[in-house]
Specification:
Length: 144
């Protein structure tokens, strides 16, 4: 099954956060529900990435996992930050795998709770053209 990505710029506490939506559902809600169902404490607590708080570099490259200074590492991406907006406080990280036709998010990790298993969360597989268009469309709204 191919998933659909929407990347939304959401305002909160005076800053803009970038929140991924997978098949119409916020990744913040999806991971929060996953963690709650498994009894992870604290569950949730995520928010969008805040470009004003972190030097992501080229955000199109960042979401492909190929930015020169990719965070947290090449081929990995922090998809969510803490609900305070700080990426290092409470991120949700994933592997990003690119092919000519797809982008896959897999191997999710909450780096501050390495014992939590996300083995049943994802993978999310996107058509590469649709994925890159969703990222570009959202980023264009930031520069207006």
């Amino acid at each position: 099954m191919v998933n659909q990505l929407t990347l939304a710029a959401e305002e909160y506490e005076g800053v803009t956060g970038l929140v991924p939506f997978v098949d119409g559902s916020s990744l913040v809600d999806l991971v929060g529900a996953y963690e709650s169902a498994r009894g992870f404490t604290p569950a949730g607590g995520y928010g969008g990435l805040v470009p004003a708080y972190f030097r992501f570099g080229d955000l199109c490259d960042y979401y492909r996992g190929i930015e020169k200074r990719q965070w947290p590492d090449k081929g990995r991406v922090s998809l969510l930050a803490c609900d305070c907006g700080e990426i290092g406080c409470w991120p949700l990280d994933a592997s990003v795998t690119l092919t000519a036709h797809s982008v896959t998010w897999s191997n999710f990790v909450q780096p501050h709770r390495r014992v939590w298993s996300y083995a049943d969360f994802g993978p999310f597989i996107f058509d590469r053209r649709q994925y890159e268009a969703a990222v570009s469309t959202c980023l264009a709204t930031l520069t207006r």
